[in-house]
Amino acid sequence: MIVSTTTWDLLGKHGVDGAIRIIAEAGFDAYDFSFCSIKQDNPFFTDSYMDYAKEIKALSEECGITCNQAHAPFPSSVGDPEKDEKIFNDIVRSMEFAAYLGAHVIVVHPKQHLCYQEHVDELFHMNVEFYNRLMPYAEKFGIKVATENMWQWNSSAEAITDSTCSRAWEFNKYIDAVNSPYLVGCLDIGHVSLVGTSIPDFIRQMGKEHIYCLHVHDTNFKEDNHTLPYTLKINWTEVAEALGEIGYDGDFTFESDFANKFPKELSLDAETLQCKVGRYLAAKIEEHRK
Q1: Which CATH number applies to 3-287: 3.40.50.970, 3.30.70.260, 3.30.365.10, 3.20.20.150?
Q2: Taking all residues of the chain, what is their mean pLDDT, rounded to a whole number?
Q3: What is the rounded distance in angstroms from the CA atom of residue 50 to the CA atom of residue 37?
Q4: What global pTM score does this model have?
């Protein structure tokens, strides 16, 4: 099983080049390129974006590592037609860029600018249209698009609550409604823990046919902590068992900012530990495959 991690937690201290070099040196097989964390002055947002992609790919080859997964810019919508069209075009650009780097899948958040509880059906139809619009580009670039289970903030209760795809049945419904081999599911394990749902049950309800890739990180069940497994409250033994039982055979990809919690000089040590934890959990998943 390929073990990879996102570039986003290293970007602030090391830049894109430094992030990729550290991820490679830490022992990861691949990296998840985070478009959602690059700043507006990045070459990605210029007309020379594919020249920049060539630079990143050359660096990756020099480091002996590849891009297996990516994360598109987010949010995917804000409710303003002009701004949403700009966002859509940036997402398409990220798909082309990621495919060139070698990514086989890019995570694109569902639209959720409306209050979920009041607009469940509207958000569903809006997102089916949104993902259907992305499918021709996915086919053109040869990259799958993964929708993701989300959450929203309830300001009145000052707590996290449900959003699009935060229940397994709805997650499956989104994927099935688009009915394209280019739309798949990215299971964010940490997000499941935030909406009062059993993670193992969620995994089993989705099944192998709907879980194509992962976002792996730990939480305290109250905040979207995005940190290293075994440091907070998720039961990782149960998670590994459930993923193994459904026969999950995709990549094991962290979406954690664990390394960012340490001084710059300790980034490599933190990423090396994270890689070891990833290989441990990947092995546990494989042990539980039926």
Answers
A1: 3.20.20.150
A2: 97
A3: 18
A4: 0.97
